[in-house]
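cache lookup: miss for this entity combination. No prior model stored, computing from scratch. Input as submitted by user K.M.:
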Amino acid sequence: GAVVSQHPSWVICKSGTSVKIECRSLDFQATTMFWYRQFPKQSLMLMATSNEGSKATYEQGVEKDKFLINHASLTLSTLTVTSAHPEDSSFYICSAKYWAYDQSYNSPLHFGNGTRLTVT
Amino acid sequence: AQSVAQPEDQVNVAEGNPLTVKCTYSVSGNPYLFWYVQYPNRGLQFLLKYITGDNLVKGSYGFEAEFNKSQTSFHLKKPSALVSDSALYFCAVRPRSLTGGGNKLTFGTGTQLKVEL
């Protein structure tokens, strides 16, 4: 149980276009999902916290208008990179908490397999 | 602000030997501590967590970690390493207090473990 599916696993797009990444919790409801960005050989940087039915909470320095997050249902959150540029090329990872199993704050996150975005 | 330090970028171990991946943390109060493993081009997999109680925590795939409050450390260990353990390992911390950012998980920079025959 507690599977998080992320799609696509990799995408190449041209500069100036937009790309949408989906994150789904397959067998549980996720009221909160998290979006991370990982640069090569670096740690995960939290970009935003996605809450079902409300606006996402962005971390300092993350452009809200560039990284649009929508959490329309309890099993789906999307990250749209708008007007992508080569510097947006990175590995994006989503995660979710399995609230139904463990509603305490010590429950681990379950991660998707990530999306490798390359902007040419 | 909370932070996690993994002082070693890479750890090399011979198969069958014990391994240790180091982690120290800085957070207000008592934290929740986690270890995750990442294989190439994949997301993170949860290994183990420390909440309270016994300082030695046992997790998946034979891994364990020892919580040391005085040294603010949470080193990952395994008695006998396998080649298949080669991966990127992340230590993470989350404060207990919601007002202290209790919903936010902070990761270390990761340690690449290489186990060779």
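stored under new cache key. The radius of gyration of chain A is 14 Å.
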